[in-house]
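Hey L., structure's done. Input below.
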Amino acid sequence: MSSPPYTPALRTGDWIAVSGQVPLRDGTFLTDRPFGEQVDAVLANVSDRLAEHGAGLGDVVKTTVFLTDMSDYSVLNERWVAAFAEPRPSRSCVAVAGLPFDVRVEVEAWAVAPAD
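Output:
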C-alpha cells in the first residue's frame, strides 16, 4: 500500500489533528472481523497517531465517527466507553453511504497537545 495523499496526524500549536482512521492493522483491512474488533482497531490507530506526537486518548477533546450502518451504533458505544475515560471527548456520529476500502467505520480526532 502506498503512502496516503494526506498527513495522518498533524500538530499545529497546541492541537493535534488526526485524520480519519479505519480498521487497518499490519497492512490488512479487518473488514471480515466482527464490528467490535474493527472499532478496537480504529481506536488503536487513533492512539498510535496521537502517540507519534506524545499524546494519548486522554488528550482527545473532539471526535467524528462515520458509520456505514447505524445498526452498529450500540457496539460502537460499548467499545467507546471501554477506550475513553471520563470525561469522554465530544463526538459527532454520521451515517454515510460508503467509506474507502469498504470499511464500516472511520474515526477522526482532535486532541490538545501535551506541554513540551
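The chain has a mean pLDDT of 96. The longest strand covers residues 60-67.

-- N.
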